Amino acid sequence: MKDMINVFQPMLGEQELAAVREVFESNWIGRGERTKAFEEGFARHLGVGPRHVTSTNSCTEATFIAMELAGVGPGAEVVLPTISFVGAGNAVASRGARPVFCDVDPRTLNPTADHVEAALTPRTRAVVVLHYGGRPGDVARIAELCRERGVLLVEDAAIAVASRVDGRACGTFGDMGVWSFDHGKILVTVDGGMLYVRDPELAARAPKLAYLGMEQVSGYDQALRARTRWWEFELSSFSRRSVTNDVLSAVGLVQLGRLPGFVARRRRIAERYDRGLAGVEGLLCPPPLPPGHESSHYMYWIQLEGGIRDDLARDLYERGIYTTFRYPPLHRVRAYGSDAVLPGADRAADGTLLLPMHQGLTDADVDRVVDAVRECVRARLGRRRSPAPA
Ligand SMILES: *Cc1c(COP(=O)(O)O)cnc(C)c1O
């Protein structure tokens, strides 16, 4: 539909095009100097050393590699909040391990340390948490809990690219972190991901797992030094090919520079929604951020009483406003075979709606959404409450 306000949308323009043109003209489009520069820039943004990060072709691939590095295999359990991205669940299940889903706080949709702790067993090998909507959540306490229990913590920081607690970047609280730069995220390379690994030895293995398990990458100078032919190689694992390239990394470098501006605009949009939607009966805005927490403002969501969420989504669609819900609870996906009972997540999943949130929204767009939500909620709830006509 023309004039539809999208729920997520990237912001790419002339600067990114110029960067791509430069890569084309350089005659080296594969993984090279720009990818190295993007990794170094992203590591600086996180406040970690460049050897601890490896770029990938998606966040899902980075999560698969993280599970491999974590030694997750048959017989192991991995705890995830049921409100997780499906790729995280698949990364666990594909290794023959069992995903164990834990509940979340129905207001923040993030798990608390208590939710995670309740799901730990002697077989738990790792915990994978995300930062719902871009909010850090209980990540500091969850990291502490995992350290105490000798369980690895992997942060799915896909939507927490600029989220921090007391200045520390989300994704660096645990043992590993993964980020996404796909077409629906804030910092977009079209498709891409990043993996952070705290342990230096594991970190050194990550680039090999991302490139076919090759032990020595061919290259003339290296081959001369090692007195081998430069096209020969050895393998340390039978891995996939999960690397990115300089075309996408050039886009990423430009977007990384624009990221603070993107997030600042998103913060103002969230504040405008908060003001515009305050006091609507039957509707709750997200709770305020705790002190010291910074969100990436990836999502803006509302929570609705009276079972009107699905009807409201349809009403808004008819007015040219696209909304959605992420992430449908994984314990309800039959393929995972879970019998968990998770009332907080069920409540959140059945009453929460994501409103349009991206840095391309104008104030007028936000006001159009606010007015439509106010009117539609009032109409839906009013209709339910008014007595039946005689
Ligand atoms: C988008 C997303 C991913 C997956 O990212 P890809 O780069 O598309 O593989 C993982 N986790 C969360 C929370 C996401 O929103």
UniProtKB/TrEMBL annotation:
Cofactors (names): pyridoxal 5'-phosphate
Keyword flag Phosphoprotein: no
InterPro entries hit by this protein: DegT/StrS_aminotransferase, PyrdxlP-dep_Trfase, PyrdxlP-dep_Trfase_major, PyrdxlP-dep_Trfase_small
Origin: domain of life: Bacteria
Protein name: Glutamine--scyllo-inositol aminotransferase
GO molecular function, one term: pyridoxal phosphate binding
Protein source organism: Planomonospora sphaerica
Keyword list, A-Z: Aminotransferase, Pyridoxal phosphate, Transferase
Residues where N6-(pyridoxal phosphate)lysine is found: 185
Catalytic residue positions: 185 (proton acceptor)
Family of the protein in this entry: Belongs to the DegT/DnrJ/EryC1 family.
Gene Ontology terms describing biological process: polysaccharide biosynthetic process
